[in-house]
Amino acid sequence: PQGSEEAKAFVNAFLKRSMPKMKDEAIQDILTRKAVVLEHYSKKKTKQKKKKTKGFTAKQRREMRLFEIEPEQQRYAIFLPLHELWKQYIRDLCHGLKPDVQPHVIQGKLLKADLHGAMVTVTKSKCPSYVGITGIILQEFKHVFKIITKEDKLKVVPKLNNVFSLEIDGFISYIYGSKFQLRASERSAKKFKLKGTIDL
């Protein structure tokens, strides 16, 4: 064990190292009160910023041809199972498409439903060459439908100035493309208003 003098010298040296900015008189003044607060400088922790994973831009998606259907895949028979799945999805959505269900209720649900796999026909158009095109919707974009026909031809049909009919279990619904120019993800949140007359 150290003697009192050695202990005193150790404490003085320790305090001098711990509080280098203070003078000896001030240290002695603190010791007479028998309460010593040593300064402690904590290191500031630098927060690491989380890197957000960025998706592809529209230009990159076009260059990579992510949404293009290869010619060998453009066959009507390949997408018939998709159409069957879509019909089951609509039946579940509309609780079985029972005859006593009000048409406007089904119509409202179809307006917000996903149409990938639906069988549609162009019934009216300002461009006569589009009338009569029938097939399964493979892709829906804001302004166009991509439809595969029974002849294994992929048709790009604009929504503008076209009326499409959609039939399922005897229920026929009409889609006015000019009022339908939305992405599939946007349609689910949109409120459609009932209108008496709608132009092409």
From TrEMBL:
Alphabetized, the UniProt keywords read: Nucleus, Phosphoprotein, tRNA processing
Official protein name in the record: Ribonuclease P protein subunit p29
Alphabetical list of InterPro entries matching this protein: RNase_P/MRP_Rpp29-subunit, RNase_P/MRP_Rpp29_sf, Rof/RNase_P-like, Rpp29/RNP1
Recorded coiled-coil stretches: none
Establish whether keyword Phosphoprotein is in the entry: yes
This protein's species is Spizaetus tyrannus
User: What role is this protein assigned?
Assistant: Component of ribonuclease P, a ribonucleoprotein complex that generates mature tRNA molecules by cleaving their 5'-ends.
GO CC: one term? nucleolus
Query: Recorded GO terms, molecular function?
Result: ribonuclease P RNA binding
Its subunit composition reads: Component of nuclear RNase P and RNase MRP ribonucleoproteins. RNase P consists of a catalytic RNA moiety and 10 different protein chains; POP1, POP4, POP5, POP7, RPP14, RPP21, RPP25, RPP30, RPP38 and RPP40. Within the RNase P complex, POP1, POP7 and RPP25 form the 'finger' subcomplex, POP5, RPP14, RPP40 and homodimeric RPP30 form the 'palm' subcomplex, and RPP21, POP4 and RPP38 form the 'wrist' subcomplex. All subunits of the RNase P complex interact with the catalytic RNA. Several subunits of RNase P are also part of the RNase MRP complex.
For this chain, the family text in UniProt reads: Belongs to the eukaryotic/archaeal RNase P protein component 1 family.
List where in the cell it is found.
Answer: Nucleus, Nucleolus
Which Gene Ontology BP terms does the record give? rRNA processing; tRNA 5'-leader removal
Tell me the lineage of the source organism. Eukaryota, Metazoa, Chordata, Craniata, Vertebrata
> Which domain of life does this protein belong to?
Eukaryota
State which residue ranges cross the membrane.
Answer: none
